[in-house]
Amino acid sequence: xxxxxxxxxxxxxMSLDGFVARPDHKLDWLLKQKTDxxxxxxxxxxxxxxxxxxGRNSFTTVLTFxxxxxxxxxxxxxxxxxxxxxxxxxxxKVRISALAPDALMASLAEEGWRRAYVDGGQxxxxxxxxxxxxDMTITLVPILIGEGCRLFGEIDKDIDLELIxxxxxxxxxxxxxxxxx
Length: 181
Description:
The chain is of the alpha/beta class. The protein is built from five helices and ten strands.
């Protein structure tokens, strides 16, 4: 049987002006959106993933949430955190890795991961640059926050995308799915 590389998949919300978080990584602008129980597909998306890869900033932001939101294994890519920095209640659920994106994906493939949810602006940027993202679901939120952490940064070559579909919601959110070519 041929070894298959783990594929990366993105599911992110972004302000209309292109930010995924405020400069201090807070998500207050996103959490205050009134969506009246709309199903944006996150549960179905997450159910098809073997686990989550996120960066240090996303990890420290999620730690401020009232409840840990992830049931699947989480890998935090960081050169500054150690496994001892993971709170005791998350040991066994969260692990820290300093591997480069391609090495991490190869390692995860050996562990049996086929699909990884890649989360966090800087991590997504590095995975896109390395050609490790298969598709992206981007939800535009009808708000301008003026500054913050961008989803997409500078790139050294064009990255072609193919539109899969677009859905608009009564709340004003617009969700677009792309295949990365």
